[in-house]
Design a protein that fits this description.
The chain is about 75% helix and about 0% strand. The protein is mainly α and about 350 residues long. The protein has one domain: Farnesyl Diphosphate Synthase. The two termini are about 25 Å apart.
Length: about 350
């Protein structure tokens, strides 16, 4: 088992967890309703399939994407039943991507439990992810507005396309930062963005507010993916509750590694390239140490921090109310998570 070099310590993790809980206190009841509805989706499947779906949706993560949909609605006109439905659909799409990601990465742990592929193998897991995607898009057709359904489908397509491009560019030492950002905006930020944007649309927000929410989600989602990339490289697997180190093993070049290659090699460039192309387990700790020592990790973290601050600033066009304040608080929690790599 590889030892990871950096992560939030236990006290800091508890503090961030409390901060997230406080930020979401405003939508505690609708979020509980969304959670119950997510769990209930298993009953929509054939009894022979229901158990697989129930397992995939049972592990409750941060639920950030559903929370953004609810908070955006609260900030711009109020939370309605359609916001809850949107939140469920977005989370089902996200869960489908996690099932497929774990297959591609060979991950054995997710949210503290066995991944679907570790439990049942890749064949069942591929189809399980497909079922979650298809079911989410079926639910999306029940919105009165075809535009809402269309935007959800577009976001799902963006997510899948981003994953394909990332897979296509594995072990590509010529990957540029602009290409990396395009990939993570598609595979991660697209769901953050559509959650916040459609939360505003369903609440009857003005075009200016909807645009601000869209940008908030895009920047927050991009920053969150940078955090996740730093965690995968230099986090503590026992605290993260999931398999780490898969990016290096699978040849995914993330922002701290790109900064290391492009600006911060400090005489290690040939060694770094060799380790990246080899993708061995023992190389992950070495690359994490070099990225910390060189400052590449801190540069990546600061890039994400700037994005979050910009996301917060963009909310100034929203009404000054508890929903808008909670959106700012959620973003501040992401900064706290990033700070764990900068101490």
């Amino acid at each position: 088992m590889k030892t990871f070099t950096k992560s939030l310590d236990g006290t800091a993790q508890q503090r961030v967890g409390k901060d997230v809980k406080a930020a979401l206190a405003l939508i505690q009841e609708p979020l509980k309703s969304v959670e119950r509805e997510i769990q209930a989706q298993a009953r929509a499947f054939d009894p022979a399939v229901e158990g697989y779906i129930a397992y995939a949706v049972a592990s409750s993560g941060k639920r950030l994407r559903p929370a953004l949909a609810l908070l955006a609605g609260h900030a711009t006109g109020g939370v309605r039943d359609e916001h809850r439905k949107l939140a469920v659909i977005i989370e089902l799409i996200h869960l489908a991507t996690l099932v497929h990601d774990d297959i591609m990465d060979g991950a054995e742990l997710r949210r503290g439990q066995q991944t679907a592929n570790a439990k049942w193998g890749n064949a069942i897991s591929v189809l399980l992810g497909d079922c979650l995607f298809a079911h989410a898009l079926k639910l999306a057709t029940t919105f009165e507005s075809a535009e809402v359904s269309r935007e959800i489908a577009i976001a799902a397509t963006e997510v899948c396309s981003g994953e394909i491009i990332q897979t296509q560019r594995r072990f590509d030492l010529k990957l540029r930062e602009s290409e990396y950002f395009r990939i993570i905006e598609m595979k991660t930020a697209a769901l953050f963005s559509v959650s916040a944007r459609l939360g505003g649309v369903l609440a009857g927000a003005t075009p200016e507010m909807i645009s601000a929410l869209d940008e908030y989600g895009r920047k927050l989602g991009t920053a969150y993916q940078i955090y996740d990339d730093c965690l995968d490289l230099a986090g503590d697997e026992s605290r993260a509750g999931k398999t780490l180190g898969s990016d290096i093993r699978k040849g995914k070049l993330t922002l701290p590694i790109l900064r290391l290659l492009n600006e911060k090699a400090n005489g290690h460039h040939p060694e770094i390239c060799e380790m990246l192309l080899r993708g061995d387990e023992e190389d992950v700790g070495r690359l994490a140490a070099i990225s910390m020592e060189s400052g590449a990790m801190l540069e990546a973290v600061e890039t994400a921090r700037v994005m979050v601050r910009e996301a917060i600033a963009g909310l100034d066009v929203l009404p000054a109310n508890a929903g808008t304040a909670a959106l700012r608080d959620v973003a501040a929690c992401v900064i706290d998570m990033l700070d764990g790599f900068a101490d």
